[in-house]
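Quick board copy: two proteins, each given as sequence then tokens.
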Amino acid sequence: MRQIRIIDKRTGKDLVSSGRLADNFWTRLRGLIGRPPLKSGEGLLIRPSNSVHCFFMSYPIDVIYVSREDVVLKIDEAMKPWRIGMPVSGARYVIEIPAGEAARRDVQPGDALEVIGQE
């Protein structure tokens, strides 16, 4: 998987400083399943995606739904294992980060993001 960095343009701070991009069938299917819990600054961008599931996971995550224009549409905070996130209309991709990280980093719906390293 390719390494990425995600910046919240409103705050000017990193949302994800050490992330991975899941953009093919296999990497999207695997996601975080079987991986250790994410640490602060880590994340996974899944593209394309407008919903997620936490089947076979053992820890909660924050899920950020983002539009084609890189604008945060919705945040599911602390999604527990074995849950399904409802599809979000207009979402082009999702970002999975450690539970509680969205609040700690002050991410809000309407924030514009910049993804570095995705191409």
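And the next:
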Amino acid sequence: MKKMTLEICSGTTCYMLGANNLLNIENEMPSELRGLAEVRALPCMGLCNDKELSGAPYVKLNGKVIEKATPEKIYDAMRALIEE
């Protein structure tokens, strides 16, 4: 399986609303997910202004936006990609 791309917005709003807790996610992943994603912190993705999205922090997993991202939401999304 090709590595997934996990991009974490580290703009001010996302950082203050929880992205700071996601930046070390690679070290905290469950063993079955560890090493399956390339994790990158990005400057502001500009998603806060999108009225269709529900809130920061924002993360993109293989380009798909995860709103109000938490480790659990990210792990669930990774597992769903593995099952595809």
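Board note added afterward: The chain is about 35% helix and 20% strand.
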